[in-house]
Design brief:
This protein is mainly alpha-helical and 327 residues long. It is built from 15 helices and no strands.
């Protein structure tokens, strides 16, 4: 995620996206064949390296080619992320009845190469910064407080998304005592909620303000997360997980669109910094929840999620207030 921004600003999208596909395919194939833990770690790192590039690169590219309806188009891109997160694990779990895990991963590594031909023969926008002096001048603009606040917002957003994705199913079968298969099914509802929220967002942006929708979505997430912590019913908890995903779904499209609108000349590097900060949140907050579950219990640990949502709302409201004052 740190690499793609400066590279795209200097060299354009084509090379870095082709590289990302090769890294992911190589990493997955290595995962399926390695026999030592050290090589497995290297393979996982390689896969993550390619994944970080393509995640940031595709979001940045979508922003760059969308002069109008940028938020709606980023939201549609996010739907496909949700389809993968929702559908692929379900597909893999079905295939495990017929194939060994290493065989499935080998097949996946080959399928991953399919976009390679699309990237090779597709025209991409040229690099934005060919002059080094101008590049360094524009990089100074990235100290803008707006980008810093938006990056911090994504720190907490990524933290709650990954925390819910990692810990919600564990919460269900440890606290509510459901079967593990039921917990995994409930987790799929989280991604379904996120896809539904982004699909709706892409449709209603023409009739409602982004700032209003952001607050509404976050309030849905806040209410759902608080109710989830106190719930003891499987059906209710699963429904609340769906609405947590729904509530989270507006943040990335709206925030990334704001970055794209305000940092046009260095948007890819701005995306790179913001998404890297987000990944730090995705590491830190789930880790803290894990520590709290050992010290206290799951219900206490999950209080971090509504707390983070409140912080997100406060940061966003502060940005909106400052923007109005400067207008």
């Amino acid at each position: 995620t740190l690499i793609f921004g400066p590279t795209v600003d200097r060299s354009g999208y084509k090379f870095i996206l082709i590289l990302s596909i090769l890294l992911i395919a190589t990493g997955l194939f290595a995962i399926s064949t390695t026999l030592t833990i050290t090589l497995l770690k290297i393979a996982l790192f390689t896969t993550g390296l390619g994944g970080g590039i393509i995640n940031g690169g595709t979001n940045s590219l979508t922003s760059d080619i969308s002069e109008t309806n940028r938020t709606a188009k980023l939201s549609l891109l996010g739907i496909f992320f949700g389809i993968g997160a929702f559908g692929i694990p379900l597909l893999f779990s079905s295939l495990l009845r017929f194939l060994e895990p290493d065989t499935i991963i080998k097949i996946t590594s080959v399928i991953t190469l399919m976009p390679l031909f699309l990237f090779i023969f597709t025209w991409f926008p040229s690099s934005k910064q060919t002059n080094k002096d101008k590049l360094f001048q524009n990089l100074k603009k990235l100290k803008n407080p707006l980008l810093i606040f938006l990056s911090i917002l994504l720190f907490f957003e990524s933290g709650i998304e990954i925390s819910t994705g990692n810990w919600a199913s564990t919460f269900l079968y440890r606290v509510i005592k459901v079967e593990k298969s039921q917990g995994i099914f409930s987790l799929s509802l989280f991604w379904l909620g996120m896809m539904s929220g982004r699909l709706l967002l892409s449709k209603i942006l023409t009739v409602a303000r982004e700032s209003t929708l952001f607050i509404i979505y976050m309030l849905i997430a806040l209410i759902s997360s608080i109710a989830f912590i106190s719930s003891s019913n499987y059906f209710l908890s699963s429904t609340l997980i769906f609405f947590m995903g729904f509530g989270y779904s507006s943040t990335y499209p709206i925030v990334l669109s704001t970055i794209g609108n305000n940092f046009r000349e260095t948007s890819t590097t701005a995306f790179s910094l913001a998404l890297s900060t987000a990944f730090l949140g995705g590491i830190t907050i789930p880790y803290l929840i894990g520590l709290l579950t050992k010290t206290f219990n799951f219900r206490v640990a999950f209080v971090l999620i509504p707390l983070a949502i409140v912080i997100i709302i406060v940061i966003f409201s502060t940005i909106q207030r400052k923007t109005k004052q400067q207008a």
